[in-house]
């Protein structure tokens, strides 16, 4: 895995983790009872983005280290995944 691949993997993991962490402990304007005119009641009142970004960075870094070590150690190879063998059995050789 090259440097570019490692950075892309980290970015994908970070954003996926961020999108999972983002809705946790959000207080909406409707929950608080202070709805600003012209906004939706589901709009966030307290969002804590900086804290969530730091938590996301920690989780993403740990996941990235684990996934990168699996990729670099080649403990799991694509040729060993049963899905690809099953796909070849179903569709056969489709070289044309």
Any descriptors?
single chain; 2 strands; elongated; 96 residues
How many discrete domains?
Answer: 1
Radius of gyration from the CA trace?
21 Å
Give the SSE string.
HEHEHH
Strand content: 5-15%
- Bin the helical content: 55-70%
Oligomer: single chain
Spans of 5+ residues with little confidence (pLDDT < 50)?
A: none
Distance between the termini: 32 Å
How would you describe this structure to a colleague?
The protein is 60% helix and 5% strand. It has 96 residues and is mainly alpha-helical. The protein has one domain (3-91). The protein has a two-stranded antiparallel ribbon with strand order 1-2. Helix 1 (3-21) packs across helix 3 (49-73).
Topology:
Elements: H1 3-21, E1 27-28, H2 29-32, E2 44-46, H3 49-73, H4 82-91
Antiparallel strand pairs: 1-2
Helix pairs in contact: 1-3
Brief characterization of the structure:
The chain has 96 residues and is mostly helical.
């Amino acid at each position: 895995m090259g440097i570019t691949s490692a950075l892309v993997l980290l970015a994908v993991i970070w954003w996926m983790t961020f999108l999972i962490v983002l809705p946790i402990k959000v207080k909406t304007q409707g929950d608080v009872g202070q709805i600003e005119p012209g906004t939706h009641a589901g709009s966030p009142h307290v969002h804590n983005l900086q804290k969530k970004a730091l938590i996301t960075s920690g989780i993403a870094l740990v996941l990235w280290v684990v996934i990168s070590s699996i990729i670099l150690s080649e403990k799991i190879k694509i040729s060993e995944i049963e899905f690809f063998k099953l796909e070849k059995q179903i569709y056969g050789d489709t070289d044309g």
